[in-house]
Amino acid sequence: MKKEKEKDKENHEGDVSYNPKRNSEKIHQQEEERSRDIESNNQEEEEKEVKEKIIDRMINRNYNTSSKPEEGTKQNSVLRSIDDRTIYDLQTLLSQRHDRLESAFYERYQYNTSIKRGQDFLLNHVDSKLSLVVMYADLVGSTKMSMALPVERMAKIIKAFSHELSSVVESYNGFVLKYVGDAVIAFFPSGFNKYLSCDTAFQCAKSMINVIENGINPILEKDKDNYPKLAVKIGIDEGENLVIQYGYDKSAPIDLIGYPMNVAAKMTSLTGPNKITVGNNVYKLLHPTVQPEFQEMQIKVGTEWKYIDLETNLSYKVYTTK
User: Fold this and answer.
1) Within a domain: residue 64?
2) What is the rounded CA–CA span in Å between residue 134 and residue 184?
3) What ranges make up the beta strands (E) of the chain?
4) Which of 26-35, 200-209, 310-319 is the least confident region?
5) Do the domain assignments include residue 306?
6) How much is the pTM?
7) What count of other Cβ atoms lies within 10 Å of the Cβ of residue 162?
8) Strand pairing of 254-257 and 232-245?
9) How many domains does the chain have?
């Protein structure tokens, strides 16, 4: 009888449901797991909120929105703002540029254009590959202008063109890589959101065209020396580029080498005045409300277009604004 009681006691202690100590440990363990899950969810929510704030700030930064966003989620509000917003430079940049441009053409205004900001960014990534949105902005008809204008007047045009477009790039948190003759080469780090980087680069390109049409040209038109109207053609592509430095000291120039750089340069040469051309890598990442502004570019027969889509091994598609 005694043995049966001891056996029952052992079975009773072995059963978790009847063992207060073990039951307490299990409850404590479950509470810790639940606490960790809650903490993990809170952390994810915080990270998501931070990213949304960054996206909100980058998309809506310095824009004047004429209409109130519709009711809905924050994400819908952000996506709607891409379509509804006005181009940044129309109200804020143009008023600042008129005085500066007049000073540049008539009072020997000295621009402080610099590529140092872009060089400083790339210095931390030398010999590394970076996913970047690359942009080429080229002055249209510069060869003819150089033959028709005195070199001093041509220099003023190129300096004004380069500086004003560079300031637009920086206003969109982009970086100027370098100046090649009358072209401005810039880049936008893709970061955690390639979609946002491509949309930002496209909006930047539209602002560049507005600055030329509504900022620089009105100043040139009223000039007594009859400066020609300016136009810009812009090419944008996205992908991995290698950061290289030509030298061993920190002051040595830093450059980018990669397929997107070559494609963007070639696309720009095929682009019409005040038009924007993007590669397929950029086009497929643009917001659906932006894509209808483009049409696929029909490459003319005889054009040296030998670029291949690295994903499909077919001819790389490019799209230009209508």
Assistant:
1) no
2) 11
3) 129-139, 175-180, 183-189, 232-245, 254-257, 275-279, 294-296, 318-321
4) 26-35
5) no
6) 0.69
7) 20
8) antiparallel
9) 1
